[in-house]
Every structure is written in structure tokens, then in C-alpha cells.
Amino acid sequence: MARMRQRTRTRLAGRSPQLREVPPMAYEITDNPLRGVEAKQSTNGHYGIFDQGAQVWSWQPDGTEPVIWMSAKSWFAEGQPIRGGVPICFPWFGPGRNGDLYPMHGFARLQNWHMSDVKDTLDRDGRFIVEYTLNESMTGDQAQWPYPYKASFQAKFTPEYLGLELRVENVGTEEIVFDEALHTYLHVGDVSRVSISGLEGATYLDKVSGAEAEVQSGDLTITAETDRVYASTGEVVIHDPALGRDLIVSKSGSAQTVVWNPWVDKAAAMPDFGDDEWHQMLCVEAANALDEPVVLRPGEVHCLKQRITLA
Questions:
Q1: Which residues of 260-285 are buried (b: 16+ CB within 10 A; e: fewer)?
Q2: Active-site residue set
Q3: Structural domains of the chain, with CATH
Q4: Based on the number of CB atoms within 10 Å of its own CB, is 141 exposed (0-12), middle (13-18) or buried (19 or more)?
Q5: Contact of 164 with 152, CB cutoff 8 Å
Q6: What's the predicted TM-score (pTM) here?
Q7: Any idea which residues are catalytic in this one (predicted)?
Q8: Most buried of the four, 46, 161, 162, 275, by CB within 10 Å?
């Protein structure tokens, strides 16, 4: 790690004075509280991902507030869900379409993925790419979803955006059907002041009221417990006046956008969620679930991408 920092200083010293200097940044493999990899910048820049679930837990471009939210109450224990970050939901969403699958959001987020590659240009441009793989030999016998598959996940951390890509390949001899989501927890200044544009006219399932075909009118604001699955393939923008910024969430390979905030009562009922933490978090996630699962024939590959840009 010391060598990385020295190399950064040497390169910066030799740059032309008209180029913008990138503050020194280096990465290290960490194991506290869980094994993974982190990169830290000279002031407050921070990237982080855990091996468990290949779960991104920090993206904070240098000089900004965190963009990814983490609960201070999260258990950070092997084999237990991590509250916050970007859990990968696979091969089912929630308890599944029939409501009887366990663990919630599938087994992939509780498994240790294999870190297959790290690409580091942190000292040049502040960019950092981490790649992971997972397959049925690693996840073992899964009676609720017993199919051969190969999954890979790439997290691309940059000063401008966080890029996420989940690829799933059917390596078996029969068709497979699965749900997936990039269950992104975003840090906001005050969720009651946030507005979300880009969903106007989209139909949605309201999982709080049970209404199945509501239509969004205007921007979405959060005024109570919110759990909606929108039929939407487009970009959304989270306008956050408390932090003075917009977050642009764009995606591909996704038929749905999920928006969630537990509000007062549900937050208090969750043991790994602080009673008042709902004020500063909002989930906006790319998904294919419920009535829009992914169907893959043998040999086919599906790619789900999501990009969060700080405006």
C-alpha cells in the first residue's frame, strides 16, 4: 500500500500544471467487518465492496456526501443480510412470486462470491473496477432453484458515476426462469423533501395498499411507507434539495424500477434498521421480478446494468 501511494505522488508531480490533479487514492483487501476491497482518497473519497453477495457498500466521490446508504444497525455477520449498499437479489425477489421462498431476495446475497479481477487506475483517474463470479458449485444444493448457471458482477467506481452490471448465463440443458434486482440504497438528506422524476405515466404495483395498476401522476414524493414496482425501463432522477444534488439512475436490461422507503413503523420493526434512519435513505433499483421475470434458454445470457451518476 505504501508503494501505491508513493507512485501516486511521483506521477502527480510530473504532470503538466494545466491538468487537474487527482488526489492520491489506493486500494487494499480488507476483512473488517467482512472480507472485501476498499479504496480511500486523501480527503473523504471512498469506494467499498464486500465479497459476501458481491455487495457494494460505499461510493463517495472525493469532496461529497456518501451516495450509497448503510444502516448503522446492520449485523455485518457471515451468512446474514447486509442492510444497505447494493444487495444483489437473485434468483428471486422478496419471497418470490408465490411468497414462499427463503431467504428473502434469494441466496446469492448471502454467498461469498469469488473476486475474479481488480483493475486499478486510481492514481491516474480515480477509477476502480472489481469483478466477481458465482455458480452452482459455489452455492451448493438449492432445492428451491436447482439449476446450473454462471453469474458475474462488475462494479465500476469512478469520481463521476457508479456502474453496476450483473450477467447470468444458463449453462444447463433446460430453460430457467428467475428474478433479479440491484437493490440500491441511496443516501439522501431528507427523504420527505426528495422528488423523483422520470416515472410519470408509468403503471405500478403498490405493495403497501395492494393496488395493482396505479398510474404515476407527476413526480413521485415520499410521504408515507412506500413500496412500489413500476413498469418502467427509463432513467429516473432523484432531486435532493437537502444535499443540493441530483442523482441520475439509468439502466438497461430492466423492465421495472422499484422504489422503497419503510417510513416510521416498518423501520422500527426491523432489528437491523435504526428507528430514525428512514429519514436519510431511499431505495431506487433496477429489477426484473414478479410478472417480469427473466427467461433464459440453454446457452443464453442476460445482462442487467445500472448506473448512478452524481449531478
A1: bbbbeeebeeeebbbeebbbbbbbbb
A2: 183, 285
A3: 2-310 (2.70.98.10)
A4: exposed
A5: no
A6: 0.92
A7: 183, 285
A8: 162
